[in-house]
Amino acid sequence: MRAVLMAGGSGTRLRPLTCDLPKPMVPILNRPIAEHIINLLKRHHITEVIATLHYLPDVMRDYFQDGDDFGVEITYSVEEDQPLGTAGCVKNIAELLDDTFIVISGDSITDFDLQAAITFHKQKRSKATLILTRVPNPVEFGVVITDKDYRINRFLEKPSSGEIFSDTVNTGTYILEPEVLDYLPDNEECDFSKDLFPLLLEKEEPMYGYVAEGYWCDVGHLEAYREAQYDSLYRKVKLDFDYQEKSPGVWVGSNTYIDPSAKIETPVIIGNNCRIGPGAIIEGGTVIGDNVTIGAGADLKRPIIWNGAMIGDEAYLAACVIARGTRIDRRAQILEGAVVGPLSTVGEEAQINTGVRVWPSKRIESGAVLNINLIWGSTAHRNLFGQRGVSGLANIDITPEFAVKLGAAYGSTVKQGARVIVSRDQRSVSRMVSRSIIGGLMSVGVHVQNLQSTAIPISRTMAPKLGVAGGIHVRVHPDRPDSILIEFFDEQGINISKAKEKKIEGAYFKEDLRRVGIQEIGNLAYPAGVIDSYRQTFETQLNVEAIRNSSSKIIIDYVYGVSGAILPELLTKFGCDAVVLNASLRQTAVSNPERETLLHQLGQVVEVLQASLGVQVSANGEQLILVDEGGLTIRGEQLTALMVNTIFVSYPRSTVVVPVNASSAVEQIARRHDGKVIRTKANPTALMEASQKNPNVALGGSGETGFIFPQLHPGFDGMFSVAKLLEMITIQERSLAQIRAELPRVYHKSYTLRCPWKVKGALMRHLVEIHPTEHLELIDGVKIINPHNDNWVLILPDAGEPLVHIYANSDDRDWVEQALKDYRHQVQDFIEQEQGELANV
């Protein structure tokens, strides 16, 4: 059997270690990852290897040559012009694969029993067998679901937290029959997980998952790299050690001298031709490469030191990575998680703080304290984007310097000379951040259409009208008054996709920022007539005459946010009496208790003035809470049901889009009016996309997110929601209280409990396994349904916090209370059990 070793990766998340080294050549226990993979293949009698190369191909060819010294036969296939993807590079060598073959990633550490997997593949007569394993947190991997016979029926590449249906993940090792390559195009970039496997699933080709026992670590980022080193050293994975075990847990190479006064704990590896000075302390977990010198009194607490490094007297190294040829001078300190790139010099008594990365061939002066990545900017976070965009504490996480770089990163993902909208709310902190973003955009040759302070629905409306490539809106976070939220939308005004977010993150973290000459710096313009344009669009989607004939009185509470003062102006134009409350600007956001007080006052004003309705507009014009003529609030699930009911009466047989956690009142109302309900993931982007791509959608969203009217623009719009609602209740000759009385009596309750990140995937898999398939919906989280009625329970992992939300829904209050109690105990017991098992590992 032949093996295809995929070794073309550049390992951008491992930089600076991979600046001059392909990812498969990064050392684990002083030998390249690819060498450990070849040893694994050889142990399972697979000795014909075809290595696919792209990034710095000569490094691997020079090291392995024809493979004779390693007991295998290696041939190479180099992707010269552009990477062809995981599947494309294998298709490129299809003529060499005339029998069953194995594809294995060159950047993971594993000791799986490959022969057992091959036997399984043949027994099942599979066309494609994916070797799977279970991991505590599957967010970074491709999740795979199999039936009881291990046939694959679903998989999802790198899911968000809410999409985790299992903790069984794709390890990037596949056993394939050569005919599956016929499904792939020639000389085109394509991927196994994104292109080939979904196609095989669609064609109903036999495709199975083999859940392997043993160790597997995808060495995808620096933390995983250190973890793989330590696991290998502590023999959690079966790897070949190239040095003699001088004493239990101490492996030492040839021609190495260790001073008798040096203190060495186990386990450690010390390579060939090393010198360990007097009084040096080497703690268990330390890996020292070949030709390394350790000075007198040096204190090494589990560092990973590559070949040729020099560590000075009394230097202190703690759980860091020191790349080849680096010199650490006397009394320097390198703290936990720091990485020093190849051929760098760290001066005497200098300090590199936790998590800081130093790119190759840099010099840090004596006595310097380095708190940020050298040359490449501030300390990197793993992810920039959360559920709704980029958010963080104002002027702590979201600083001007961060915003400049973020603007440049986004601008680098669009064409030079493209135009982008930038807008914000009225607060001065948002002005500061938006101006910094504008500077970053202009620095990469992007022209800015600055709408200044305006409501986000207006920005979304203007995106297609101004012909821009996208837009950015900055505001105080609707749910966290001390935080800033930065949202990105595309040329239609829809929040950008996950793929686009990843591109921006890649540009930000890799510092892959475009720089342009002075003559190419972007321009800054202030478009005229923005409010007029929005007003015209607003009016085209309303029956203005109906509103004019209503002679309604409306009370609007802006909660000191000035979410878009266009609304009372428009309503007045339509003949309505609009009374505005709390419209002055406050720089600090209103707290939740204060908001509730204002809502109570709004209800009193509505009653006293005998108004038709009251509305509290928030979230920079996106969200709303209604107050009926009796002063009672309508919000959350009741507001969702009321809006859906009103829409279906006006537009029978239309479609509404709601999140997966909305109550079943929506379906009950739809059945009355022959309407259709589409459920989506519980995030704003999914609601926007579904409202745009599906036909005949009259309404999208919920009382929690706000409402979308796709004919107006693709985002949430609290202002238009009020005007449209007024139009519909006027034509229907009903009041809010009358509509509320007609709504279905559905009990909908939720409970939130803490769930560690590492347990979420196992919890979702457990829930999928213990329920029959016909009782499951896996739109987002795990929804357990009764096919015969509207009873359901939804377990939904939180996308941004270590939490899990449990929702119960039924016409029967007692059923809801009992179901919520039962699942709360089930989930809590499982979390405690998993935490206990993780603690014992």
Automatic annotation (TrEMBL):
Segments forming domain Alpha-D-phosphohexomutase alpha/beta/alpha: 383-513, 533-631, 636-746
Family: Belongs to the phosphohexose mutase family. Belongs to the transferase hexapeptide repeat family.
Pfam family, any one: PGM_PMM_I
Mannose-1-phosphate guanyltransferase C-terminal domain span: 265-366
Domain Nucleotidyl transferase: 3-231
Alphabetized Gene3D superfamilies for the sequence: Alpha-D-Glucose-1,6-Bisphosphate, subunit A, domain 3, Alpha-D-phosphohexomutase, C-terminal domain, Hexapeptide repeat proteins, Spore Coat Polysaccharide Biosynthesis Protein SpsA, Chain A
GO BP of this protein: carbohydrate metabolic process
Keyword terms: Phosphoprotein, Transferase
Keyword match Phosphoprotein: yes
Domain of life: Bacteria
Protein's organism: Gloeothece verrucosa (strain PCC 7822) (Cyanothece sp. (strain PCC 7822))
GO cellular component, one term: carboxysome
GO molecular function: intramolecular phosphotransferase activity; structural constituent of carboxysome shell; transferase activity
Protein name: Nucleotidyl transferase
